[in-house]
Design a protein that fits this description.
This protein is α+β, with helices and mostly antiparallel strands. The protein has five domains: 120 residues, Alpha Horseshoe (Serine Threonine Protein Phosphatase 5, Tetratricopeptide repeat), CATH 1.25.40; 283 residues, TolB, C-terminal domain (Neuraminidase, 6 Propeller), CATH 2.120.10.30; 76 residues, Immunoglobulin-like, CATH 2.60.40; 98 residues, Carboxypeptidase-like, regulatory domain (Immunoglobulin-like, Sandwich); 122 residues, 60s Ribosomal Protein L30, Chain: A. The chain contains twelve helices and 47 strands. The two termini are 52 Å apart.
Length: 736
């Protein structure tokens, strides 16, 4: 079933075939094509192409028809003929690439994506991203062992999709199946099938959904398309995607099609049925574009939806609106380029832990629509993550919903092996549980109502309060890195990290109580002096060797409870995601609480230097006696600073180089600089640094930093100060 039927429009124009009885066959097909009746259009195109096999434009219309019907097997055959036709537009190369990708021919698809990118000046960065993303397909296609999936018995030979959680463990969905009796006789031209209607399935008490009964009531399931929908338990409201019609009259847009709108029904508990009034749910419904696929947060205050309204990023985009005091909805906000692409994003679902799931054919995927997830962290959506196989396939996969406990849910796919066009699948996560226990670090008592935030591979996944036993549970996946941040009024926040295997784990999170002697550590960027958020800080009691870890807040600060009369070692570091050649160098320092009394505060500041691999960094104030290379006491003090950097960053490997000015011969200067570099390296080794981490290099006068060259017949008028600029010692990072 063509996915545009879910998102864009509904054709209602009737065709009187007799009118065209005397007209050319292709023109009759064009009429059906314009009304989205591709099945009938192909019948006429098939007759026409037999009479005119060289008609390039007709071949393209046949290919386009199969593409719009999601028949990628036939689409590939026809686009193979149009992709290299010089008389047709380059877009055929793109469509051929998409057909190849949907048929798992990824290498061939990559070649045609590249061909389209090379020949069409309008090709955009998204195509380039798709080309690069095809290299990830093999990994996405691997079963990571996270999900079990099963095809539901409620599916029919027609299209069943849009599952939504309903009352008492039931689910709702929409389908264009034939009703057993009293069914809707009208058909949609695009699919040549009945219009979509809403259905309910019961829970059999064992976690299985069974049966498929049309939703009852005076308003649902009327004349045209109904669904998908979103039920909100708190407000007892049903938000439904519906064709733009009132009673039996459909209202067309300026392009003579009927768009989709979001409507709302309220439940009448005393009558155990939905009310008679179906009203437009939002003020931004519009007859000239579709507003559809609603999903509400658990509190009913935030609505996410899909729309092809003007001003978006591409075809269909995702938007958000907030319910105001009084019930009105705010002006929709586009979720931005991190989520929306120049293709289509649709079928959003917001889970109870704040994860937004959606389907997209614009982000890197296996083909067709793929399901992605993202979370809102610090006001910004994280990079969408492809859920991979078996949730995603080379066909269309969408409509993903997950229960509050994050253990099971449903999704839709038209992959091979199903019952009908689109089928509903149930998934069960093979995941594990992480138990977090928050307790008072001093008394060992469990702490109730502590806030624990969990991050999975750096992405925020949820936030919960501990119970009376100081415990909280989070669903997790095997072989992932998790970070837990715990906080509670009257205590200093703390962070604990853990890596999962294939069994449940428990993490202990001790919180230090405020009111004693506290240490405030501030971490800054050494160059800009700006505070660094999410820097890792470790404080080690040098008497007990017990470490405590925390991350800095938005002000670059981390708090610790410390003991009086003790010495502490401080360590700070910070990761820079997605920049493998750039890093903040870790630093260490010490602080003492000897002579301090509680209650009180101790302060420390650590500055982190951002460095880049392969870029030379000057070591200041390294001087040598004339024609000598031994390390003077004043130079040793400066080299000790470099020793500290190497000890604080034990995996760092560097090249230490010595440079001279141009005076004396080039060979003499090279030999002298080599001896000085080797002498400096030997000194560093003597201070406890492994020799395998160091490379000595003498460059003589070959790398002057100014124009003070004077070799051979070249004369220099430079001052002593200018020559001094060239006499220097540097180090360059070879490996982090």
């Amino acid at each position: 079933m063509g996915k545009k039927i879910f998102t864009l429009s509904l054709a209602l124009l009737a065709v009187a075939v007799v009118v065209f009885a005397q007209k050319p066959t292709e023109r009759v097909g064009d009429t059906y094509y314009k009304q989205f009746d591709f099945t009938t259009a192909l019948q006429y195109y098939g007759r026409a192409i037999k009479k005119d096999s060289g008609n390039s434009a007709l071949r393209q219309k046949i290919a386009d028809s199969y593409r719009l019907m999601n028949n990628w097997t036939e689409a590939e055959k026809w686009y193979a003929r149009t992709a290299n036709d010089a008389g047709l537009k380059p877009i055929n190369k793109l469509y051929y690439a998409e057909a190849l990708r949907n048929n798992k021919k990824y290498d061939e698809a990559k070649a045609y994506y590249q061909a389209y990118y090379n020949t069409d000046t309008t090709a955009n960065a998204a195509i380039k991203q798709t080309i690069a993303g095809l290299d990830m397909v093999k990994d996405l296609a691997k079963d990571k062992g996270i999900y079990n999936i099963e095809l539901l018995s409620i599916n029919s030979p027609a299209s069943d999709f849009g599952p939504g959680f309903y009352k008492e463990g039931r689910i709702m969905f929409c389908s264009n199946r034939q009703k057993p009796s009293g069914g809707v006789g009208r058909k949609d031209d695009w699919t040549d099938a009945p219009f979509l209607q809403l259905y309910e399935s019961e829970n059999d008490g064992s976690g299985n959904v069974v049966g498929a009964d049309p939703m009852t009531g005076r308003q649902p399931n009327r004349r045209f398309h109904e669904g998908p929908m979103s039920y909100n338990k708190k407000t007892d409201e049903l938000f439904v995607t519906r064709s733009n019609y009132v009673k039996n009259r459909a209202y067309t847009s300026s392009d003579k099609t009927v768009k989709l709108k979001i409507y709302r029904l309220s439940y009448l508990p005393d009558q155990a049925r939905w009310g008679d009034e179906v009203i437009e749910a939002v003020p931004f419904n519009n007859k000239d574009y579709s507003v559809c696929h609603p999903t509400l947060t658990a509190d009913g205050k935030t609505l996410y939806f899909a729309s092809d309204k003007p001003g978006g990023q591409g075809g269909v985009d995702l938007y958000v609106s907030h319910r105001q005091i009084g019930g009105d909805w705010s002006v929709p906000e586009n979720l931005g380029t991190d989520i929306n692409t120049q293709a289509d994003e649709m079928f959003p679902y917001i889970s109870e832990d704040g994860t937004l799931y959606f389907a997209s054919n614009g982000h890197v995927g296996l083909g067709g629509l793929d399901v992605f997830s993202t979370t809102l962290a610090n006001g910004k959506w994280t990079t969408p993550e492809n859920l991979g196989y078996p949730i995603n396939s080379n066909k269309d996969d969408f409509g993903y919903i997950v229960e509050a406990d994050n253990k099971f849910g449903y999704f839709v796919s038209n992959r091979d092996g199903g019952v009908g066009d689109d089928d509903i699948y149930k998934f069960t996560k093979k995941g594990i549980v992480i138990n977090a226990v928050v307790y008072n670090a001093k008394t060992k008592d469990q702490i109730k109502d502590a806030r624990v935030i969990v991050f999975e591979n750096g992405i925020e996944k949820g936030s919960r309060l501990t119970d009376k036993n100081g415990a909280v549970q989070f669903p997790a996946l095997p072989n992932r890195n998790y970070k837990f941040m715990a906080s509670k009024d009257g205590f200093l926040p703390a962070t604990v990290e853990a890596q999962t295997q294939n069994k449940p784990i428990t993490v202990q999170i001790p919180l230090q109580q405020q009111g004693g002697l506290n240490l405030e550590v501030t971490v800054l960027d050494k160059k800009t002096k700006e505070p660094l958020r999410d820097a890792n800080v470790k404080v080690v009691n040098m008497n007990t060797q017990v470490p405590v870890k925390a991350q800095t807040d938005e002000n670059g600060k981390a708090m610790f409870e410390v003991e009086t009369g003790s010495n502490y070692r401080l360590e700070a570091s910070k990761d820079i995601p997605n920049e493998p050649n750039v890093r903040y160098l870790a630093v260490s320092s010490t602080v003492t609480t000897v002579g301090k009394q509680a209650p009180g505060m101790v302060y420390a500041t650590l500055e982190l230097e951002k460095v880049k691999k392969g870029v030379a960094i000057k070591v200041e104030n390294i001087y040598y006696d004339l024609d000598k290379w031994n390390i003077r006491p004043d130079a040793a003090k400066e080299l000790d600073k470099l020793v500290k950097i190497l000890l604080d960053n034990p995996t760092l490997e560097i090249e230490l180089s010595s440079h001279t000015d141009c005076r004396a011969t080039a060979e003499y200067n090279r030999q002298l600089s080599t001896k000085r570099a080797e002498s400096a390296v030997k000194y560093i080794i003597s201070r406890g640094v492994n020799k395998n981490r160091l490379v000595a290099a003498g460059y003589g006068e070959s790398r002057l930093v100014n124009k003070c060259a004077c070799e051979g017949n070249v004369k220099s008028n430079c001052t002593d100060e200018q020559h001094q600029e060239n006499r220097r010692t540097e180090f360059k990072i070879l490996k982090f």
